[in-house]
Each structure stands twice: as structure tokens, then as C-alpha cells.
Amino acid sequence: SYLLSLTSYLNKMNKIKSFLKLIPILLITLLSTSVVFADLQNIIQNMLPFTDVKQGDWYYADVRIAYQNRLINGKTDTLFAPHDNMTAAEAVKLASCIHQLKNEGTVSLSAGVGTWYKPYVDYAKNKGLIDVDLDWNNKITRAGYMQIFARLITDEEARLNNVPDGSIPDVRMSHPSADAIYKLYRAGVVQGVDSNRNCSPMSYIKRSEVAAILTRMMKDSSRIVFRQGQN
């Protein structure tokens, strides 16, 4: 009877020892699983819902940053339409969201019922980003959006680059949007459409290009440093 009890006790102790040896393995497994799960969560959160924006596209990172900061949406839940031209309503929406993000640290503005852009227009007027109503559903020119975005740039920011008056080949100082265009060049938000740094002020701008500009508007480290007359 004593031997049987001793044998039973030893068997139990061996089982306990075996279980204790398994604990580190179980902990490592659980930790590994949680790390993998966290990685998956991070990947999912960083994924874009747009089927027309691929990781290999030059504007992918800019679209992702702008989308995650609630600055820009798709044309639908799954389409960003990177090659579509920006409308005046979209330009004012972006300017309003950037202004709120820079001043409040977050974007709480959202589309209105019926006329989706009305809350953004009201905000822009209230903050002095625009003075008059625009042709909201029509495409906006590069000069037009620069006129709006330049109001988000401080004079201090516009000291980054030396861009003398009259040095942008296709923007004379007599152009009605010259001050705004030169301000964005000087702040490193834009650098022109070609090696000569022409602005092409009367052409339209694609949504993919706007995403890159939004990144530079938000992050000083993304600003472009250059000297006019040099590539």
C-alpha cells in the first residue's frame, strides 16, 4: 500500500514537472500568436480599400496618409479614381480638413446631407480660406486650388526656397494667382510640372497629384527643397 501511494505520488510529480516544462513553450506560443495578430491588425489598418490604388503606384503612400488622416475619400467605397481631375468642392473640402487638422489635431468635419460639400464650404468661409462661392461641381485649375491652399501656409513656411518674383516661366507676377503660386513654391509644397518648374496654372490637377500635395502640406519633412533654376 505504501509503495503504491509512493508510486502514485511520483507519477503526479512527474506530470507536474512535465507541465511546468511546457509553460515556457506555451507562453512563447501565446506571445508569438499575439505578435502575429498585432502585425495582422496593423497591416489591415494600413490597407487601403481602393482597388485602383496599388502598392507599386508612386502616389500609394500619399493616398494612404491622406486617407488615414481623414483628409481624402474615394469616389466610391472601393474606387479612389487617381486619374480624375479634382473639383472645386473637393479642393475646398481638403483645405478645410487640413486647416482643422493643423489647428485642432483631428478632423471632425464630415459630408452634409443633400449637398455633401456644404459643411466644408461653411467652414472655409468662416476660417477665411475662401471669399466667394465657386463652381463647386466643375474641375478646378491648378491656379484655383493654389489660391485656396496658399492660405494654409504661413509666411515663415514660405521662406524654405528662394524663388524670386518672375522666376516661374509661365507665371508672371501680373497673374491673378501669382502670390499664391509663388508662396506654395517657396514653401516646398509644389515644384512645377516639368524640369523648368513651369506651373501650368490653367490646367487641371489629378487626384493622385493632390494626395502628394496633401502629404507635403501636413508634414514639414516632406517639403521639397530646391533653388529656382536648378533641377
Tell me what you see in this structure.
With 231 residues, this protein is an all-alpha fold. It contains 7 helices and no strands. The protein has helices at 2-46, 60-68, 88-104, 118-126, 142-149, 178-186, 207-218. Helix 5 crosses helix 6.
H and E string: HHHHHHH
Helix/strand class = mainly alpha
* E-strand count: 0
Q: Which stretches are poorly predicted, pLDDT < 50 over at least 5 residues?
A: 34-45
Strand content: under 5%
Net shape: elongated
> Rg to the nearest angstrom?
28 Å
Largest sheet: none
Helix content: 40-55%
Mean pLDDT over the full residue set: 85
Question: Span between N and C termini?
Answer: 95 Å
**Number of helical segments?**
7
Break the fold down into its secondary structure elements and pairings.
Blueprint (H helix, E strand, L loop, with lengths): L1 H45 L13 H9 L19 H17 L13 H9 L15 H8 L28 H9 L20 H12 L13
Brief summary:
This protein is 47% helix and 0% strand.
Keywords:
231 residues; mainly alpha; 7 helices
